[in-house]
Specification:
four-stranded antiparallel β-sheet, 322 residues, six-stranded antiparallel β-sheet, mainly beta, 2 helices, Tachylectin-2, Chain A, globular
Length: 322
């Protein structure tokens, strides 16, 4: 048997996949791309993207004491699309990212709202994942892969997101707001590379940023187009603490790609796509929750300190296009 001796920054859980459609209390097609939160009760909550048999998606919460097993899943959709009051949700809602915001004492949930004109970014606030204050679509199509920073910088809220101009490449941007509703000072942060790189032409935020003593650690996805389709892999970048539009380091190599059967085979093959993480009590262990092949939920675990050490040894300064 061939032994893989490469050092892995993220180690897949032996019980993967940890959530599938077969566990759902109502009939659905697939369960994937969940935002994650560690609740005050100590439970882990995953707010999963659930695709039903119309092909449209909604969000549904699953809770677990250990973040791996014995999931308690809401009996009905936790956050369904509401196209009557929010026309931007005409074709469902997808890919949530969750950030606890101490100043608001609420969780900020950003998600993709699929409108008649394409995907845009919507925002909702909640204290308990039972009732939600929807602010509606804050970035119009085409835009997705958004997450709020957990605190203001320079007196303003900061949102990271991924607009796509018509016919153009997909880069990562930041925008600023005084009130979470009106956004401006739109600034590119990380460009997709060019040519044959693993992250050429299309990149986007994966899980929300991780604040570290060295800066904001970003796990992002890059998409490589091949003759047989797209491959979604993960990379790292580090942003300045007080000016997150400034990229300090960007990894040259991808750190995790589709290998396991549940990542390579599904509704969309060759995809690892994290939307959320939790940190362990040591403040270093990172539990990365990711969608596999747009079909199931899986878990991989690493160390923030190891990610930063790797990045210092395998990076180029700044966020250049390559």
């Amino acid at each position: 048997m061939m032994v893989d001796t490469r050092h892995r920054l993220f180690r897949r859980h032996t019980d993967n996949p940890i959530l599938t459609a077969h566990q759902w209390p109502y009939f659905v097609n697939t369960v994937f791309n969940a935002g994650a939160a560690k609740l005050s009760s100590g439970e882990t909550l995953l707010l999963c993207r659930v695709e039903d048999c119309t092909g449209l998606s909604h969000l549904c919460a699953a809770r677990s004491a250990d973040g791996v097993s014995d999931w308690r899943i809401d009996e009905t959709p936790t956050l369904p699309a509401d196209p009557k009051n929010f026309p931007g949700e005409h074709w469902g809602i997808e890919d949530p990212r969750i950030v606890w915001v101490p100043e608001l004492a609420k969780y900020a949930v950003t998600y993709t709202a699929y409108s008649l004109r394409g995907p845009g970014v919507s925002l909702a606030l909640t204290k308990d994942f039972q009732t939600f204050d929807r602010l509606g679509m804050i970035f119009p199509p085409e835009n997705k892969d958004a997450a709020l920073l957990p605190r203001k910088i320079g007196g303003r809220w900061v949102m990271i997101h991924r607009p796509v101009p018509a016919g153009g490449d997909a880069h990562i941007w930041m925008s600023f707001s005084p009130d979470l509703r009106h956004w401006g000072d739109h600034t590119p942060v990380l460009h997709a590379r060019r040519g044959g790189w693993w992250d050429a032409r299309k990149i986007g935020l994966s899980a929300p940023l991780v604040e570290t003593p060295d800066g904001w650690l970003m796990i992002y996805h890059g998409v490589r187009q091949t003759v047989s389709g797209s491959i979604y892999r993960l990379g790292l970048a580090l942003l300045d603490t007080e000016d997150p539009t400034k990229c300090l380091l960007r990894g040259t190599k991808w750190i995790m790609g589709p290998e396991a059967e549940y990542e390579r085979t599904g509704d969309v093959r060759d995809v690892v796509f994290p939307c959320g993480y939790t940190l362990g009590d040591d403040g270093d262990t990172i539990n990365l929750y990711y969608g596999g092949a747009d079909t199931c939920m899986a878990l991989a675990t690493g160390k923030v300190s190891e990610l930063l050490a790797w990045l210092r040894l395998n990076s180029t300064p700044g966020g250049g296009e390559g």
